[in-house]
Design brief:
about 475 residues; mainly alpha; two-stranded parallel sheet; 16 helices; about 60% helix; globular
Length: about 475
């Protein structure tokens, strides 16, 4: 597909496409996890054995994320995302329609690859879109994932959970539809000045750029990101502290980390300046400060540990340990997803007002209380309330982690895609610990399995400082940048 014209309508259409991808991913994932009790019962598997199937799926997802990175280098993140969405169709057919363990295993591996590609591709698209908007949108974007999960939970409660296993094939309709939405093309110029045109002017503090006033960065959002579009679709100037003003910024390409488009290479012959300043002489283009990303990466891992444990084992915990009725097993997932969705829905505004560190720090304490309620629950309604509190505390952690990684990656879209793809692999380390280890250590009761994430969420408190936007050199006020006249 071609890149859509630049302007407010383009942004809205691209955002709708990204939201559809997140929605489809959440719908399919939660629908599949709600079928786990049925899968375990149909094939006579115990939690330890089924953990090995989950292990294969998680490892395949890590491979899928790496494949998405390779596809994004050559064909763009939209191609990686569409490929993953379409691949979910045969994967779900193998999982639910073959009726044997070989088909189940093959389907889970193929689904894992598709999941990794969709995970990485959708977040690549969302990070680029957030830069184009110039304000936090990742919390609400990932809120679409949660909304998809909520819809899946509602469908389950409506009676789908009682249908035969092969009914799960119908879930494939949703990602198939999402694959044909207008995603952002690979030929977007730097900071979205429009296909085939020069990018927006770049200014530094103390430098005038025509007569345009430079909008300030939104509170809690890193200075140097794209402030969005002015009325009538005119691209606004981009303030990048620490860079040298130029008539126009070079266009970007998805060809690889730090790569410029052919036109930009011929025009400049040098590495493009990043959001952290101009490329140092002799420094490799696209170098990433991985150490700076580490706090957000560890927090991201912990979130997915808790998330996968809750969604993979929550329904079985209610059923086996707390004697919940079979038709109400989705109430392990529903409260958790509802709380996560509420937080992500309000996450853009909360982040802009209070800052990411405060959101992460406060959320960690709420999540600890929620998981403690799950571990100590005397009945399934108490555990359901605990899952709600857990989602309330951790709902914003994943999108804020991606935002932090994308900002640290700098202004080069291709480099940001690589960072997001590799950062996304921490998702599967967390899923490995949450979905697999939780089952393996839960000898006799799943309460033991949920005690591990209960302790680990406290690590988020000291990690929260790593989500702060570091002050830039030459910027007196991180929230307001005024050009000289």
């Amino acid at each position: 597909m071609t890149t859509l014209p630049t302007g407010p309508d383009s942004l809205r259409l691209n955002r709708a496409a990204v939201l559809a991808a997140f929605f489809a991913q959440g719908f399919v994932f939660v629908s599949a996890t709600l079928f786990i009790p049925k899968i375990v019962g149909t094939f006579g598997l115990d939690p330890g054995v089924f953990s090995m199937f989950l292990l294969g799926m998680v490892l395949a997802a890590a491979v899928g994320s790496a494949i998405a990175e390779a596809v994004a280098r050559g064909a763009g993140s939209a191609a990686a995302l569409r490929t993953g969405l379409v691949t979910m169709v045969p994967a779900l057919a193998l999982m639910f329609a073959t009726g044997n363990l070989v088909g189940l295993a093959a389907g889970m591996v193929l689904y894992g690859i598709a999941l990794g590609m969709v995970d990485a591709g959708s977040n690549m698209q969302a990070v680029t879109l957030e830069r184009r908007y110039g304000r936090p949108i990742l919390p609400s974007s990932q809120g679409a994932w949660t909304l998809g999960g909520l819809v899946a939970t509602g469908v389950s409660l409506a009676g789908v959970a009682t249908l035969p296993l092969n009914a799960g094939v119908l879930f494939a309709v949703v990602p198939l539809l999402a694959a044909f939405t207008p995603l952002q093309g690979r030929s977007l110029p730097a900071f979205d000045a429009g296909p085939g045109s020069a990018a927006s002017p770049v200014a530094t503090p103390g430098t005038a750029l025509g007569s345009s006033a430079t909008p300030s960065a939104p509170p809690g959002f890193l200075p140097g990101s794209t402030p969005g579009l002015l009325p009538k679709g005119t691209p606004s100037p981009v303030v990048m502290p620490g860079t040298t003003p130029t008539p126009s910024a070079p266009a970007m390409s998805d060809a690889g980390p730090g790569a410029l488009s052919p036109d930009a290479r011929s025009a400049s012959g040098t590495a493009a300046p990043t959001a952290d300043g101009p490329a140092a002489a002799g420094a490799p283009t696209g170098a990433v400060r991985w150490a700076a990303i580490a706090p957000a990466g560890i927090a991201f891992l912990i979130f997915y540990l808790v998330d996968s444990a809750t969604q993979a084992w929550g329904p079985l915990f209610l059923y086996r340990d707390l004697a919940a009725p079979e038709h109400l097993l989705a109430l392990a997932t529903l409260p958790y997803l509802a709380a996560t969705w509420l937080v992500r829905l309000a996450g853009d505004r909360l982040t802009a007002r209070f800052g990411a560190p405060a959101i992460v720090r406060t959320g960690a304490m709420i999540a600890f209380a929620g998981l403690a309620a799950v571990v100590l629950a005397p009945s399934w309604p108490v555990a359901a309330a605990g899952f709600f509190a857990t989602g309330l505390g951790l709902g914003a952690v994943a999108p804020l982690s991606f935002s932090a990684a994308g900002r640290i990656a700098g202004g080069d879209r291709a480099r940001a895609d690589v960072v997001v793809a590799r950062f996304n692999q921490l998702n599967y380390v967390g899923a490995l610990l949450g979905a697999v280890v939780t089952g393996l250590i839960s000898t006799g009761t799943l309460r033991i399995g949920f005690a591990l994430p209960m302790v680990l969420v406290l690590v988020l408190i000291p990690l929260a400082r790593g989500f702060a936007a570091a002050p830039r050199a030459g910027v007196d006020d991180a929230r307001t940048v005024r050009p000289s006249v």
